[in-house]
Amino acid sequence: CTLSDDLAAQLSDLAQAGAYDYIIVEASGICEPMPIAYTISEYCQQAAEGASAATAADEPAVSTAEPAAATGAAAPAPAPLLALDNIVAVVDCARMLHEFDGGKRLLRQDLNEDDVESLLVQQIEFCTTLVLNKTDLVSAEQLAEVRAIVRTLQKDATIVEAEHGQVPLGQVLGTRRFDFDEVYQSAAWLDMLAHPEEHEDPETLEYGISTFVYERRRPFSVQAFSDFATNWPDSVIRTKGFAWVDQDPDTCFILEQAGAQRSFTDNGPFVASLPEEDQQRILQQNPGVAARWSPECGDRLIRLVFIGKDMDRAAIEARLDACLAG
User: Fold this and answer.
1) In total, how many domains does the chain have?
2) Domain match, 174 and 244 both
């Protein structure tokens, strides 16, 4: 399936058949998991709402109105109930070590390095079960390092160790682990933005894996930051957060980096750029925004999470500071 409508239609057909207890969707290795999960979640929610409406319509009701004339057409049957149970990501332990040690890249003939690195990180960040496969190909210390790496990227998923892909079915089927909002929030970069003081983990620090939040109340110079991006620190595994740039000071951007791939995405206007009436309404409804409000620049700021191995935080921050607009 390549389109969300196609996937929903296939799910509906399989569910209508009534012959299956469980549906397993094996996504392509080059697919981002979040859009697939969103499509399935939307279908499940719509099916549940349809079933609820049908049940309510079947219940007897007392009415003083005259009975309606029969149309002879049966009401459409509600879609069968489905629930998204689990999202499983599989990590090749040996390749993971190579990837984040800056050695051999995860390569496929039809992909470039940037795509693989980004997809690998996204699949780890958005899952409810993480299978660490091929544990027999790494030492106990290396396995502990892999666990530390993935836990730095994904704070909540259940981790299962495996050899030759042998995993107990109870760890992947019928788990009831999936909740879209909880999984979305389980990416470590989001949690670190909310709770930066809670991410000094001795287990990850033992392997040189660390995180920090870079926060400044001045915008980046687009040209200076572009120069920085051409020589991105090799020690950084993952960067994500909010950026403010001088060429478009009213727009909040999402800066995202995984491996050698980097992107800027428009995240909408800063609250401070909106009319005063809208600002006050949003600040009242969002205490978190109000708590970070600056009298000089409102909610405009740079706030980025850096996750890496053997990072020189002071050097990275100094280089980023040199990119700030005067």
Assistant:
1) 2
2) no
